[in-house]
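Treating backbone geometry as a discrete language has practical consequences that deserve illustration. In the encoding step, the backbone of a single protein was reduced to a row of integers, each denoting a local shape. The amino acid sequence and the backbone structure tokens for this protein are reproduced below.
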Amino acid sequence: VSVYWLFFLLFYQLILSRYTFFVWNRMYLLATLVGSLGLPYLRYPSGVSDSPMPYTFTLDPILIAAPQSDAIWSSSTLLGIIYLTGLIWMTLQLYAHLKQIMLLLRSGEMIELEDCTVVILNSHHTGSFSFLKWIVINRRDYENHFDTILCHEMVHTHQRHSLDILLIEVLHVVFWFNPILLLYKKRL
């Protein structure tokens, strides 16, 4: 999966990133991100025919015994523990971030619009952003640049960009050791 992600991301960076077809670029990134999960299961033709070899010979069987180890933990057990530790840690991190966003949404003044909800924060420390159907705007941006920010963030809500980020975050939980996902997130 990592090799496919790297290949598709390099292709995107070298060829597609300079074009302003944002919707198509986004679809490409999402399709390659998800599609690469199934590509390792495809069987490719080997290119070698199954014709019999003209010369064959048989060797007597050789018994190969696994080396005896006094180690309590095998390397695969240790790797499994490291992976599960990272998986649990990343799951807790994702949960904490989602909880923080929900608390932030509840702390602001809500204005219901036709197809989204605007949340106005009294804090100037949090930048304006959108998450699913909510558009969060801090008080300073609301007073100075409301129309511009609202138009920009409504594009994100209509195109459901939060789902892209959530998909990458969930994949990042499973593939926590893979830095390529951070590059995908930055490109999206």
Q: What stands out?
A: The first helix runs from residue 2 to 16. The helical segments are 2-16, 22-35, 75-107, 139-158, 161-174, 180-187. Residues 128 and 137 are 4 Å apart (CA to CA).
